[in-house]
Specification:
It contains 14 helices and 18 strands. It has 423 residues and is of the alpha/beta class. The strands form four sheets. Strands 1, 2, 8, 9, 10, 11, 12 and 18 form an eight-stranded mixed β-sheet that branches. A six-stranded mixed β-sheet has the order 6-14-15-16-13-17. The radius of gyration is 21 Å and the shape is globular. Bound molecules: flavin-adenine dinucleotide.
Length: 423
């Protein structure tokens, strides 16, 4: 048994951005911290790989201008942001090589964006499920709302494709309230559209790698946690290699889709159990294909049910594929990406990476998609702890599905634990 005689202040489960930020903040406050990670490397849903000689991100990549907490950490670690190429305002919406947007669709998009923005303004940022209109907004799917809103079919399709790209859920399976919760911190649809996003030069995974390097041997990889025991004055975190780490508190910073496989010997409150059992994280594959010669670069294309959105820049093409069909072999997905972008067969080189996040046993999907009715029912459990066990992560944050959310929620849980430890 590792650490048999020693008791840490905090054991953090998961070395994604949220867990590493929580551990860093606790360490800075003088706490004795251990981090246990199931995978063989740190970073979780930020992962950088090499494609045709360039670093690419197969998970989290784009950094919004309002990602203030992440940007601060990036700078403190000596990393740099660079514009994601090409800048969004220069992208052209396109639907499978059809003509660009008609003016009626463009004005329909702006009208839909304004209506959504107004609805966002009615939501309290910390707890949208407490808004006066929450029950009504949560009862509708985004598709229900688009059907009733005075927008044409093409506008509805574009908003639906964008929503699926952002949230992983198809418009009929996504609660309107959950979509608004996602849009609110981003400043609404039109702000997203206007802003030029950034990426982290050299890849987003460097943030996790550098945070872990500073924590040194406090971070242990390839150690999946299978049980968390709470007994009187402490928690005992059991890993599959038979080790037990004891601590005053535990911070569980794992994806919602992977948390249910940990056995909590005290059991979990019904509300937390319901959240873990009923809210699903859809299958998502991020596909990146190197460019042989992309004639239509700078195009953001609305695709189909498998790949609702794809884009091409100077170096490669990127598409997010959802649902069961993401099990297609990589060359077939690459052909699909070629078709969605309206390219001819030779535009993309054969080098491609398909990262299927739902196939990762300790990730389990892209990120949670709240179906109609689920956010008002399960939202209050997102950031609720259970005795000495605290929960955190992007999936539970006020910036869901983003790296900024992971950082903010890591900081939130560190502050919560510091208060309880009296540190
Ligand atoms: C395809 C895709 C594209 C994205 N694009 C963007 C983007 O452009 N911009 C953006 O801001 N965000 C993006 N995101 C979202 C962003 O990457 C995530 O929200 C964020 O990285 C999640 O951080 P986290 O720490 O909450 O969770 P994770 O990064 O998932 O970390 C959780 C860690 O817990 C570990 N773990 C799980 N179970 C156990 C266990 N039993 N024992 C020990 N360890 C365990 C996992 O292995 C993992 O390392 C994207 C995500 C995906 C999937």
């Amino acid at each position: 048994m590792a650490d048999a005689g020693r008791r840490h202040d905090v054991v953090v489960v998961g070395a994604g951005l949220s867990g590493l930020v929580a551990a860093t903040r606790l360490r800075q406050a003088g706490a004795d911290v251990a981090v246990v990670e199931a995978g063989s490397e740190v970073g979780g849903r930020t992962r950088s790989r090499t494609l045709a000689g360039r670093t690419v991100d197969v998970g989290g990549e784009l950094v919004g201008r309002d990602y203030t907490r992440l940007s601060g950490i990036v700078a403190a670690l000596g990393l740099r942001l660079e514009p994601a190429a090409p800048p969004m305002p220069h992208l052209r919406w396109d639907e499978r090589a059809r003509p660009p947007l008609r003016p009626s669709t463009a004005s329909g998009l702006m009208a839909a964006a304004a209506r959504l923005h107004h609805l966002c303004s009615l939501l309290p940022p910390q707890a949208p499920w407490h808004a006066p209109l929450a029950d009504r907004l949560d009862a509708l799917s985004l598709e229900d709302w688009l059907t009733r809103a005075p927008v044409d079919e093409r506008t509805a399709r574009l908003v639906g494709a964008a929503a699926q790209a952002f949230t992983t859920a198809p418009p009929h399976g996504l609660s309107l309230l959950a979509f608004l919760q996602w849009l609110k911190p981003a400043g609404g649809l039109s702000a997203l559209w206007r802003e030029t996003p950034w990426r982290i030069r050299g890849g987003a995974q460097q943030v996790a790698r550098r945070l872990a390097a500073r924590l040194g041997d406090r971070v242990v990889c390839a150690s999946p946690v299978h049980a968390i025991e709470q007994n009187g004055a402490e928690v005992a975190v059991h890993t599959e290699d038979g080790a037990v780490r004891r601590a005053r508190r535990a911070a569980v910073c794992t994806p919602l889709a992977a948390t249910g496989s940990i056995a909590f010997t005290l059991g979990l409150p019904t509300a937390q159990r319901g959240l873990l059992d009923q809210v699903h994280s859809p299958a998502v594959t991020k596909l990146l294909a190197a460019s042989a010669d992309i004639p239509r670069r700078g195009v953001l294309a609305a695709g189909d049910a498998i790949m609702p959105l794809a884009m091409a820049d100077d170096h490669h093409a990127v598409g997010l594929a959802y649902g069961a069909d993401t099990a297609l072999p990589t060359p077939r997905l690459r052909d699909h990406l070629t078709a969605v972008l309206g390219l001819d067969g030779s535009a993309l080189a054969s080098e491609a990476i398909a990262q299927a996040w739902h196939e990762e046993p300790y990730i389990g999907g892209g990120y949670p998609a709240f179906a109609p009715g689920q956010l008002t029912r399960h939202g209050p459990a997102l950031r609720a702890g259970h005795d000495r066990v605290h929960f955190a992560g992007a999936d539970r944050s006020t910036w869901p599905g983003t790296m900024e959310g992971a950082v903010r929620d890591g900081e939130r849980v560190a502050a919560e634990i510091r208060t309880r430890l009296g540190a």
